[in-house]
């Protein structure tokens, strides 16, 4: 249970860090979404840029079987490496956005 709490805290720290970066144009709000009951975590951008609606998930992480799954990352940052720097073991990180057959070529968990 201690590892699970450590990983939840690492995810929260990471998402709050990226939520603090303001979108340079328009009226865009960063929303951090934590579902600790089911272990789903997201950073979502919501708002308007001129007359264009902005809505989308920037980062989506899940915890499954005590591993952090990176489901989506639209940033230019290596989220997996950032998690490692926050104390997460590489073998507890799954690059869920990669096909299963490609994961074995990474330094991270296959699943």
Describe this structure as you would to a colleague.
- The protein starts with a helix and ends in an 8-residue tail after the last helix.
- The protein has a single domain (2-103), classed as 2-Layer Sandwich (TATA-Binding Protein), CATH 3.30.310.110.
- The chain has a 5-stranded mixed β-sheet with strand order 1-2-3-4-5, covered by helices on one side.
- The chain has 3 helices and 5 strands.
- Helix content is 26%, strand content 37%.
- The chain has helices at residues 2-19, 79-85, 100-103; strands at residues 27-35, 40-49, 52-64, 67-73, 93-94.
Structural class by secondary-structure content: alpha+beta
Count of domain modules:
1
Number of strands: 5
The CATH homologous superfamily is named XisI-like
Strand content: 35-45%
Poorly predicted regions are none
Q: How is the secondary structure organized here?
A:
Layout (H helix, E strand, L loop, with lengths): L1 H18 L7 E9 L4 E10 L2 E13 L2 E7 L5 H7 L7 E2 L5 H4 L8
Parallel strand pairs: 4-5
Antiparallel strand pairs: 1-2, 2-3, 3-4
